[in-house]
Amino acid sequence: MQTTFTDAQRQDPDIQLADDILRACVHCGFCLATCPTYTLWGNELDSPRGRIYQIKDMLETGQGATPEIATHMDRCLSCFACVTTCPSGVDYKHLSDLARERIEADNPRGLKDRLMRSLFAFMLTSPLRFRMALALAPLARPFEGRLPRPLRTALGLAPDSVPRRSAARPGVYRAQGKRKMRVALLAGCVQQVLGDRAHAATLRLLTRHGVEVVMAGDAGCCGALDQHMGRAERAAGHARRNIAAWLALEGGGLDAVVVNASGCGTVVKDYAYLLRHDERHLPAAGRVATLAKDITEVAAMLDLTPAVETGQVVAYHSACSMQHGQKITTGPMDLLASLGFDVRTVPEGHLCCGSAGTYNLLQPDAAQDLKVRKLANINSLEPEIIATGNIGCQMQLNDGAAAPIVHTVELLDWATGGPKPF
Length: 422
Ligand code: SF4
Ligand code: SF4
Known about the structure:
The chain has 4 domains: 7-106, Orthogonal Bundle (Fumarate Reductase Iron-sulfur Protein, Chain B, domain 2); 111-157, no CATH class; 171-299, Rossmann fold, CATH 3.40.50; 313-415, Rossmann fold (3-Layer(aba) Sandwich). Helices cover 51% and strands 9% of the residues. The protein is built from 24 helices and 9 strands. Strand 8 (385-388), helix 23 and strand 9 (405-407) form a beta-alpha-beta unit. The longest helix is centred in the middle third of the chain and has 16 residues, at 232-247. It binds iron/sulfur cluster (SF4) (2 copies). One iron/sulfur cluster (SF4) binds at residues 35-37, 48, 51, 76-82, 92.
């Protein structure tokens, strides 16, 4: 793609990066076929190629973000199916990050939209605030009909009661037997409140197989939710805090930073990008990015052997952040199959389930359409269990699934001697 940035514009490293990305696009349109929003609406403006053109226009003219580009970028799930499909290697992920930052800075959205985004960014990125919001949810239910749509959707997704406090507290979880590895485990924010079963299974699986796990008290939200909303500086703040907490553990040996929510793992593995303007923290960000591993990547290094008879039909839902964000495709399925599960891949597996960070709250109609389509595809397999590696997908698909939805690590734990998760 030809671009017309001036030399003065290219002095800005972000513009230079955008220019490099834009020039790689040959506008072939292959990416359209796998884009969920283009699949839903057939509108070029809601396709990867259409968005690329709009971003190019916004950055080249330098006239600021319009409400129109904000609308089309807000409808993008950041699922990155387009990145997997693109034969030219166009880095739409970072291009869309740059666009979201610009839109956030230029502030073209209406007041209600801005308030909702600020509220979710405030509420969801702290386990304490999220717990408080869940505790207050029953008080809001009688007024549900009068609430703005995103809040109604959030209420619909909220559990009936506040989950008990996480079993995965800050501290050191000793390896059983001879220690083979020492890792840090990301507690996360939403994951810490709603994904406790996955944390507990991760701790059991790792310690039982000779891995010492440290949960650093200072580490928390990975920054994904803020980054998804274009709030790059807030996301970078989360990254700096986590990096400091994890690298402080290196003195005792640190083999990996384990993440068991693939949405978070995608961002932690990209911390060097997030801190690209922060020369002081950039080397440490790069170090953490290389240490970051999805739990299934670490599990594959362990000698997992079946302790119970399995054989159940498992529909494996590969989260977008797992398959497109981290390029982890067959690994989790191979692990499950090696432990005796009958693993089936979901038809149209490249299409997002509609969860996508806060997407299901801020774009509820599109998210609902994608959820219905995903559930139909999953249920067509007549599974006995549904497995996935991302808490957001679990929450999104919980209602309407034909079988219990569990985190992949819960099955790995059960099959190798842990409790049955359903
Ligand atoms: S597939 Fe890649 S090169 Fe082709 S239009 Fe899409 S982004 Fe551009
Ligand atoms: S990230 Fe997903 S929704 Fe956004 S343009 Fe790419 S394929 Fe479409």
